[in-house]
Write a structure and sequence with these properties.
By secondary structure, this protein is an alpha+beta fold. The chain is 25% helix and 31% strand.
Length: 259
C-alpha cells in the first residue's frame, strides 16, 4: 500500500471550471428523461480528459483532477444524509482507458455480486437490480436502478453500508452511445470500531466508447469520511485515488479472465 500511495501523492492538477461544472451538471441532471440529457457534459469531459491528462501514464495522479465541492443543487433529487455536501472533501476525479468495449462494462453492471471485482469490498458487495433489469442492457430502457449492500475494507476503515447506484444510456448524438452512472449513500454508516464514519458519498461516472474499441472511464468522487485516526488530507486523497484506480484495473482483470 505504501508504494501505491506514493505513486498517487502528487497533488492532482486543478480542474478547469468547465470540467467541474460538467461533472456536477451530470450528477444534477442524471434523471432527465431525454436520451441526450447529459451528452454535452460527457463530451466536455471527454475533450478535457484527452486534452489535459496523461492517459498513457500508470501513475494515477497523472490521470487525476481536483474538482469543485458540491453546492447541494446536484443532490436534491436523491435521498441523502442530512449533511452539508460542501463537507464532502477532497473532491476528485480520475480517468483511465479500458481495453474493453462498453458492452462488457454493461455486463458488469448487470451482475448481482460485484465482490470479485471490487478490491475494497472483496467479502461483500451484494446487489439488487430494482428497475430496468429486463430492458436496460440492450437499450430497451434508459435507466438501470440498483441497491447495494457493501462492506468497505481498506487500510483506513472497515464499514458496512448501503449504496444506491443508477446507470443510464446517453445518446452522444455523434453515432455513439455512452453510459453514465451515479451513486450515493442514503444514510451515513459507522464502522465496528465506532470511530470511523462514512458521513456521505456521491459519485458520477462515465463510460465513453473509443475508436479503438475500448472505453474511456472517469469517476468523480465527493466523500466525507471521519476516521478514528486522522492520517491527514493528503493520505486520504491518495488512498481514494488508488482505490478508484484499483477498481478500474480489477474490473478489466475480471473481464479478461471471464470472457
Amino acid at each position: 500500500m505504501t508504494l501505491l500511495l506514493l505513486s498517487a501523492c502528487a497533488d492532482p492538477e486543478e480542474a478547469a471550471a468547465e470540467f467541474s461544472d460538467a461533472a456536477r451538471y451530470g450528477l444534477e441532471h442524471f434523471d432527465d428523461e431525454e436520451a441526450n440529457a447529459v451528452a454535452a457534459p460527457i463530451l466536455a469531459l471527454e475533450e478535457q480528459i484527452y486534452g489535459t491528462l496523461d492517459m498513457e501514464s500508470t501513475v494515477s495522479a497523472d490521470r487525476a483532477l481536483s474538482i469543485e465541492v458540491l453546492t447541494g443543487d446536484e443532490i436534491t433529487a436523491i435521498d441523502h444524509p442530512d449533511r452539508d455536501p460542501a463537507l464532502a472533501v477532497p473532491p476528485m476525479a480520475l480517468a483511465r482507458i479500458s481495453a474493453f468495449p462498453i458492452s462488457e462494462h454493461v455486463r458488469v453492471a448487470m451482475r448481482d455480486d460485484l465482490s470479485p471485482m471490487e478490491p475494497n469490498s472483496p467479502n461483500r458487495y451484494a446487489r439488487t437490480l430494482t428497475d430496468g433489469a429486463d430492458c436496460w442492457a440492450d437499450r430497451g430502457c434508459l435507466f438501470l436502478r440498483t441497491t447495494n449492500d457493501v462492506l468497505k475494507e481498506n487500510a483506513l476503515m472497515q464499514v458496512g453500508y448501503r449504496l444506491d447506484k443508477d446507470y443510464r444510456w446517453v445518446d452522444l448524438e455523434d453515432g455513439r452511445w455512452a453510459v453514465a452512472a451515479r451513486s450515493w449513500m442514503p444514510d451515513s454508516a459507522t464502522g465496528e470500531d465506532g470511530g470511523t464514519t462514512l458521513w456521505q458519498s456521491y459519485t458520477f461516472e462515465i463510460f465513453v466508447p473509443r475508436d479503438d474499441g475500448g472505453t474511456l472511464r472517469l469517476m468523480a468522487l465527493w466523500a466525507e469520511t471521519e476516521l478514528s485516526v486522522d492520517p491527514g488530507e493528503d493520505v486520504i486523497e491518495a488512498t481514494q485515488l488508488v482505490g478508484i484506480d484499483d477498481i478500474f484495473k480489477t474490473h478489466d482483470e475480471w473481464l479478461s479472465e471471464n470472457p
